[in-house]
Specification:
Alpha-Beta Plaits; 234 residues; 8-stranded antiparallel beta barrel; alpha+beta
């Protein structure tokens, strides 16, 4: 996937990343996530698939859904994500669609919790599936080193035969709700389980995980989600 004063202000909350001294460069694009509680997540997703008008109206490049499968904070926990090429496009989208003023059909089947933007701090390939999500507290001075280690871990996991995409995401405008996201996406729940089996069998790449974990101040939450693409712009 590929405002100015307001955008500059938002970026001040990002750590200073640079493509030098071996640092992993910041990823491209921006995601906007709408956190909701759905009475029936499957029915809600089916409704969005049948009516992509909201995604088209805001100029989304790609849109999808992630449904929490373990460690729920509440029943029907899930979110809808939209991908954009830039913060400018992502923030402009908030003027084009108000999720609190959706159609009566949507309002009847889900409750909006909050909106948040995310910036990938390393390149991330969007291939949704079985995904483990950690919310992490990491100090600003350790964040770049953490991203570097996660990039190293992703390479090692792939070299070990795993089809996986691992991302680190900085929340923007998430209020008190959000923290750094670490997301590990596998094509199936079985594939996620195989990684866990190897981890508990002391796979060689676990040393990289240990080095990355040493840079984390606190794990705030740990969930498994099932994610899928709902819409892609033509």
């Amino acid at each position: 996937m590929r405002m100015i004063t307001l955008l500059a202000t938002a970026l001040l909350s990002l750590p200073a990343f640079a493509d030098h001294h071996g640092n992993v460069p910041v990823g491209t694009g921006t995601f906007v996530a709408l956190m909701v509680q759905a009475k029936d997540p499957d029915a809600y997703i089916a409704t969005l698939k049948k009516n992509p008008a909201p995604f088209i109206a805001i100029g989304s490049s790609v849109a999808g859904a992630c449904v929490t499968k373990t460690g729920h904070d509440y029943p029907g926990q899930m979110f809808i994500f939209n991908g954009f090429a830039s913060f400018e496009e992502a923030m402009a989208a908030t003027d084009k669609y108000d999720a609190m003023k959706a159609t009566p059909e949507l309002m009847a089947i889900r409750e909006v919790k909050y909106n948040v933007m995310f910036k990938p701090l390393k390149e991330y390939t969007l291939e949704p599936g079985s995904e483990r999500l950690w919310r992490l507290k990491i100090s600003t001075e350790n964040l770049q080193a953490y991203v570097n280690k996660i990039a190293e871990l992703e390479t090692a996991l792939r070299a070990a035969g795993h089809k996986i995409n691992v991302g680190v995401f900085q929340p923007i405008g998430g209020g008190v709700h959000e923290a750094i996201h670490l997301r590990a996406a596998s094509p199936s729940t079985a594939a996620s389980g195989r990684i866990l089996d190897e981890a508990f069998a002391s796979a060689p790449w676990m040393s990289i995980w240990a080095e990355a974990s040493a840079l984390v101040d606190e794990v705030l939450s740990d969930n498994f989600e099932q994610c899928e693409i709902l819409y892609t712009a033509e």
